[in-house]
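Input set for joint prediction.
Command: fold jointly, output tokens.
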Amino acid sequence: MTARLQVRDLVVEYRTRDGVVRAVNGISFDLHRGEILALVGESGCGKSATALAMLRLIPDPPGRIVGGEVLFDGLDLLKADDAQIRAVRGNRIAMIFQEPMTSLNPVHTIGDQVGEPLRLHRRLTRPAAIARSIALLGTVNIPHAEARIGDYPHQFSGGMRQRAMMAMGMACVPDIIVADEPTTALDVTVQAQLLDLLKHQVDTHGTSILLITHNLGVVARYADRVNVIYAGRVVEAASADALYARPTHPYTIGLLRSVPRLDQPATETLAPIEGQPPDPLDLPAGCPFHPRCPLATAQCRREPPPLRAVGDAHHVACWVAAHG
Amino acid sequence: MGRYIIVRLCHAAIVLAVVTVLVFVIARLIPGDAIMAAMAGSVDMSDASVVKTVRATYGLDEPLPLQFLTWLERFVTGDWGTSLGTGEPVLNMFLSRLPVTLELFAGATLWSLAIGLPVGLIGALKRNSGTDVVLTAGALLGVSLPSYWEAIVLIYLFAVLLPILPPSGYVPFAEDPLLNITSMILPSFVLGTHSAGLLARYVRGSLLEVLGQDFIRTARAKGLRERSVVIWHALKPAMIPIVTIIGLSWGGMLAGAFFVEVIFALPGLGRMSVDAIFQKDFPVIQATLIAVSVNVLLVNVLVDILYGYLDPRVRIR
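tokens >
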């Protein structure tokens, strides 16, 4: 089965006053029908830039997509013309952004904003779009949706705003939903409700979801496959089960050790990863993780490791782990 | 929204009350007694009893608060006093000059919108391009050019070298509509270019700020055309600071009218104020000050109402 979306060697750069930052440095992955793929990493590792670049939403300037391919439905989205990419955005591939406070327009009603993709891509009239929006808000569990449809975003709570964002993303029943930290600002119960809604979308419509997060708990519960990203590269790609059972890259192992677990004795201390994420303007030579890596060798300091198979659909970019 | 408007109007009324007190006090504090000066020619001011009579005639021997209330009562009932310069009732002078100035302001605002909005819009959409640099420089020039210099150059160009517009003067609209409008083109343009430059810079800045917001990215991610993103999602929130600038320019136009009405020989409020100030014509100065304040207050109420329309978050408070 060919993947629904193929990202190949994506490179994104930002021109800053101090020089050019390569935020995404050759990331590749496939996204299949009906699966949830998580991109995991620290802030600034390039996971959001990857998501934005797929739909060419990187603000230019300062950002620029330097290379790579994003193949979707026989089309390279990075080379598509304006009309082609607009027909994909919000229709076949929808995005759900973090920051529900600022990602909704403060001067338009929720109903108008949720219904906008329907008017645009499905050519619905305004009353029809509003009626459909009420139904959508109902499916994302906003109580009294008919009464709240004319509300402005500031009249909604944070959780309701994020639900409205989700309703907006689901409006056209897209093939792919890209959810960029969809639940970061919300409390845990609301997080779970919203992620269950996304999961429901996968089960009922075969939607594929690209879930961008730094929350390993969310990944463990919802993702089918995981790509761990460090300094703009995929350092480990595996099924969620394999990743938690046999984390292989030292960075992945470090990440998992720094998360508290209920099934561990409370006496065990958490082990943070020593050091800081690398300065994107001045990435270390060789493997970008080597200055923080307990296993680093001379080879790690010299040559960047390629992504190599260590098991069934389990790939790792590490000299040491791949040997072992 | 109705409640919101009433609250705004109440605020304006309070400010107006303070303004009337200030206007009255300032007039009494300015050195040089206008009554004495006016009477000096006709009566013997060295005679203390004559001075006393004169002061009593004008109510100047009453306590200040009482003088204020008397003055306020007359002012509200339409008795604005008589001009010391022309002997005409101030209200009549004011009403005959008001249409000229209002026409000038309206024309200037139209020019300012017609130039400022598109220039700012193009500057924001083509930011940092050659077009943007040229337009921004032009806007800066519009703000910096002294209006009297601009007026003289324009009169030379369009009334002398290329005589298509009258150089100065005023004809009421009812008398000759065409001449009325042609004679207003140059003065309103001169008055409008200053605020046009300011407006263009604010439109550009405000729009650029809004275009960098997260909700603009959301709008693009929905698949909207860039044109729809700007018109439907960016323009309305960007209009909030722009409306403020339009209001402020309107409020500040009287200062510009001082120059423009004198240079173009327009019988408006600016011209009347300049004459009154030179002649220490207090009743006229007082009336002008209050008219200016009312003008600024009304525009501010209008701006506040527009805020409420543009930004639903404002309506709640």
